[in-house]
From TrEMBL:
One of its GO terms (biological process) is cellular response to oxidative stress. Gene3D superfamilies: Antioxidant, Horf6, Chain A, domain2, Glutaredoxin. Residues 46-209 form the Thioredoxin domain. It comes from Hymenoscyphus fraxineus. One of its GO terms (molecular function) is peroxiredoxin activity. This is Thioredoxin domain-containing protein. Keywords: Antioxidant, Oxidoreductase, Peroxidase, Redox-active center.
Length: 266
């Protein structure tokens, strides 16, 4: 492949197909179908900046084509190990309660585990009862783990996170994907540790603010706090863009953002 050629977008069709449809599914041969094939995944390991693999799947809100689902929005795709389990129940409830804040920022939530859609549907009732939420975002049924393999959501070395047959459950993965279908964040948590939904939202704020303005965000940053002038911005340009910026070191320049610039939702 030459430097000028675009790398094709991986496509993983997890629905049932006719032979002709299967033969024409882009890169369908790339998809590993069993744990013993997981060595093949390394050739297509996802990294920051990778195009999020497309797929078709059943969800609790109906069938989806993932790239069509993304549309022109940001997406948080996250997996959990198993339905009807304690940590996962608290996580899904927390995401459901925080969903309005994600929606304000143009972000869609979508969950996934190696369970059926029917299992998800029953479990949602428990989640809402326990957390006081009203979960409405889709949860993907990935019983055959095809999407989980495509997104490297399985940890074959964690012997505490397997089903009765010894097959790995999904770990607690988080992918933040932008409207260009580009992966902007990848997080992986062990089965024993619940995630921090506020941190996921904070990263969305950081990414969206950074995309809109020539800045980066420091440790523990939250909207409204000072940001860092991007290293690529020279001081002369910074004076125009950020009149109140201050130089701590030649490589470290802080600046407040005008109030209207501090929230990506505006």
């Amino acid at each position: 492949m030459s430097a000028t050629e675009e790398r094709p977008t991986p496509y993983f069709n997890c629905s049932f197909q006719s032979k002709s449809e299967h033969e024409h599914s882009l890169h369908s041969s790339y998809l590993p179908t069993a744990p013993q094939h997981h060595a093949d995944i390394d050739r297509f390991s996802l990294r920051l900046g990778s195009v999020a693999p497309n797929f078709k799947a059943e969800t609790t809100t109906g069938p989806i084509d993932f790239h069509e689902f993304i549309g022109d929005k940001w997406v948080v795709l996250f997996s959990h190990p198993e339905d009807y389990t304690p940590v996962c129940t608290t996580e899904l409830g927390a995401f459901a309660k925080l969903e309005p804040e994600f929606t304000k920022r143009g972000v869609k939530l979508i969950g996934l585990s190696a369970n059926t859609v029917e299992s998800h549907g029953g479990w949602i009732n428990d989640i809402d009862e326990i957390s006081g939420s009203k979960l409405s975002f889709p949860i993907i049924g990935d019983k055959d783990r095809k999407i989980a393999y495509a997104y490297d959501m399985l940890d074959h070395q964690d012997t505490t996170n397997v089903d009765a047959k010894g097959i790995a459950f999904t770990i607690r993965s988080v992918f933040i994907i932008d409207p260009k279908k580009t992966i902007r964040l990848i997080l992986s948590y062990p089965a024993s540790t619940g995630r921090n939904t506020a941190e996921v939202l904070r990263v969305v704020d950081s990414l969206q603010t950074g995309d809109k303005h020539k800045i980066t965000t420091p440790i523990n940053w939250i909207p409204g706090e000072d940001v860092i002038v991007h290293p690529a911005v020279k001081n002369e340009e910074a004076k125009t863009l950020f009149p109140e910026f201050r130089i701590v070191k030649p490589y470290l320049r802080f600046t407040p953002l005008p109030k209207e610039k501090t929230s990506a939702a505006v």
